Amino acid sequence: MFQRNENIKLYIVASLLFGAKTYMIYRFFFNINLENVVQELILFINPFVTAFLIFAVSVWMKEKNQLRFIRYAALLATLILYFNILFYRSFGDFLTIPLLFQGSNVADLGSSVIALIEPFDIFIFIDLALIWYLTVQKKWTLTTTFPRKKKLLVLSMALAFLLGNYILAEIERPQLLQRGFDREYLVKNIGLFNFHIYDIVQQSRSQAQRVFADGNELSSIITYVDENTTDNEETDLYGIAKGKNLIFVTLESLQTFVINNTLNGEEVTPFLNSLTEESYYFENFYHQTEQGKTADSEFIMENSLYPLPSGAAYFTHSGNTYHSTPQMLGEEGYMSAVFHANNSSFWNRNSMYDNLGVDQFYDINAYEVNDGNSVGWGLKDKEFFEQSMKYLTNLPEPYYARFITLTNHHPFDLDEEDATIDQFDSNSNTLNKYFQTVRYLDESIEEFFNHLKESGIYEDSIIVMMGDHYGISDFHNRAMSMYLDKEEITSYDQIQLQRVPFFVHIPGQEGGVMSQIGGQVDVKPTIMHLLGVDDSADISFGTNLFGPNRKDYVALRDGSFITDDYIFTKDVCYDRESGEELGSENSGILAGDDSDTETACSPFREQVELEMSYSDKIIYGDLFRFHDFTE
Ligand code: GP9
Ligand code: MN
């Protein structure tokens, strides 16, 4: 126990006790996955940093208030921890503001809360008891009036610790706060209390924008969409898959540059290559994701809206009203299910899926995952498809089943026995390994097709597959230029590298390679067209990829765009076919030139910006809550 020592002050005692307790709770009450030493270190120091930050406030108080403050702060913080523990026991997740106020989760919890309490929970209150014991029973005076210098010192120390914690977290997960990722990541890196503050700030920001929005803004958006992004023309393919199951596969990190390409003379993706001849394969299809990566790709294809310029709408706007593919198909009698062997809270999928009208989410708990059958991010794709079949075959038809693959994910780790193609040989380990996991993904898709055929599902379904986003960032451009046999990767090449494969496989139909430009916003209208669903009342920024009157450009979230003839990026307009520079739109004063330069790309530029701002308005203002889509 403590030696009675005049130098030990209550805020230090409380910080140490509360910090140690929080750490124990992180380790033993929550199931937090630690992947490396840095994560362990962060998880260890964070509780003390946070506790110090809370209790150090007391040094600014009058001596007689210090004790009271510390007691109440410790009690409140303990209750917050404890509510999280109870919630976690029931839902395997941390509390968030939207959950508290709008979720049915907490209401569900209410009735069973007693059942969640365990006898040893009493230890969670042990530091409170100890402080009480020392200060009341033992009458230790651990408080004092602090001189101004000391107050400032303690405050600076608290802030410096916080900054240190944040820097470590930023090293471990760049852009952690902007992107959100997963609640577990946030808690792991910044701690539960800072996570709650983060959550409150996020929620109030988006609430404010929502509060000031009204339905009037929608009418100009609807006019715009009707005039610019709608193609209601029926083609030969209209309703070709009416009433059939829709099987959608997200091809993790798969880029178009590997399709129909070779490594040391060997095809990288032999199965997908064969599918390019037996499907409608779109070779000029672009991903449009931003910080939300996979979640953005899902958001775009399910809603035909753009992702947000920062953060993931899956996190920031999961409570909005949407008019999504699962909802629209639900009205046609389709049951919808998502299969993905990861925690359901990753990318906040669990909340978002409920809201998007996904009926069933087969998350990690639906799968048997062990060391032998997983690699990198988790369950290997081949296992994933195999284990999914028992669920798929039992779904009531017609269904919309969406599969999200995982193995071909950075850092592209693969067990030796699964590697069936050599690594590339360059300075980029990432690109070198990419070919092996891409090949593995190709094989797993082939196996999935076989499962579908064997189970008889194949004939009654159409299979749509899409790459979610790039796998190889521009950081690896030197290695990439070696592989593509180019002198360098220019900004033009960089845009062309944002192409991801898009397949529409209709059993019994030949298909072929399609060269029109398209993007992820086009997926929803394309699906509706194939399934013969009337979507003329939808508000969507994409157009049916098979339509004759398509919107003639694809906008990327950073403002770059691709038209039939041009590519515009980083202020430069290029010829799409040749890559030749056609001129640059000045970047104004910074470029030492403030006269406006028009290029062939200029007319599109304004429209792209307008379109993005409309999409943002819908999301920030939650405008669909004012609209009746059945009218
Ligand atoms: C996680 C998986 C990968 O569940 O979808 O996400 P990403 O890092 O690609 O966005
Ligand atoms: Mn992804």
From TrEMBL:
InterPro entries documented for this protein:
Alkaline_phosphatase_core_sf (IPR017850), LtaS-like (IPR012160), OpgB/LTA_synthase_biosynth (IPR050448), Sulfatase_N (IPR000917)
The domain of life is Bacteria
Spell out the catalytic residues. Answer: T294
Spell out the Gene3D superfamilies in the cross-references.
3.30.1120.170, Alkaline Phosphatase, subunit A (3.40.720.10)
Recorded GO cellular component terms are: plasma membrane
Q: Which residues cross the membrane?
A: 12-29, 41-60, 72-91, 111-132, 152-169
Predominant cellular place of this UniProt entry's protein: membrane
Keyword Glycoprotein applies = no
Annotated residues for binding of substrate: H409
Which Pfam families does this UniProt record tie to the protein?
Sulfatase (PF00884)
Q: How does it sit in the membrane?
A: Multi-pass membrane protein
| One function term, GO molecular function aspect | transferase activity
Please state where this protein is localized. Answer: Cell membrane
Q: Which family does it belong to?
A: Belongs to the LTA synthase family.
What is this protein called in UniProt? Phosphoglycerol transferase MdoB
Q: What is the lineage of its organism?
A: Bacteria, Bacillati, Bacillota, Bacilli, Bacillales
